[in-house]
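Hi V.,

You were right to ask for the full record rather than a summary. Here it is.
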Amino acid sequence: MTETPHAGSMLRCGKHLLDLTRPRVMGILNVTPDSFSDGGRHQRLDDARRHAERMLAEGADIIDVGGESTRPGAQPVALDAERERVLPVVEMLTREFDALVSVDTSAPQIITEAARAGAGLINDVRALTRDGALAAAAQSALPVCLMHMQGEPQTMQQAPHYAEPIEVAVIDFLRQRVAACEQAGIPRARLLLDPGFGFAKTLEHNLQLLNRLSALDALDLPLLVGVSRKRMIGEALGREVSQRLPGGLALAVMALERGARILRVHDVAPTRDAIDMAWAVLQERVENE
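Predicted structure:
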């Protein structure tokens, strides 16, 4: 466990201040027709409102709104379609619930417009590699989560291969993206990192990466981890998507032990209990050593 808080432990997210000296839960709100576990369930604004309200009541610290599925094999989404899905939900969540909203996007136009709509965090699976994304993120003045991925969602699971240990590949990629952000005027204090479980990684890669997750401490930035309902659980346990909660809770606790500070999940209430219980045990160790 990381005992010393990172330099970015207090993260300014628009008008919100996110304290990362303790673990936080990010609830997933997909407003897409084709996300792997909940596609089509929250496309209508009323459905999105009800689901977000439930996650906030269950203890979500952040609501992550995504308008483009990035599951393996997912097809790109037109900018207008992503805009129509995402922006009304961001506006509703900030207006009605004063929620800390993260927007899961790679499009520079959506980064800019979501910031204007009240979003407090940008969560980009492509780590600001699209043309214009670095400039848009810098201009937004919002924190950004950079994720590791090789290739694009359409092709990323077609025999992913790394010439070095997976944790080394992830660290090298993220270090380069952090440097690109700093060069573009985004300070380190506004950055978070996501190792990208399930993105261009085999089951063996995912297991190795979780075991070695604490190696990412070398980057000295807060870690966001998303393993909820993912294929790695299905492959390891032989479970369908609807049966992956117990495996996901085990992975969330293990990620927390290895330094994760934000857990991105579909099932907020059980995850909140699992990580709060694990955190109580870990804190006892810190306080009594």
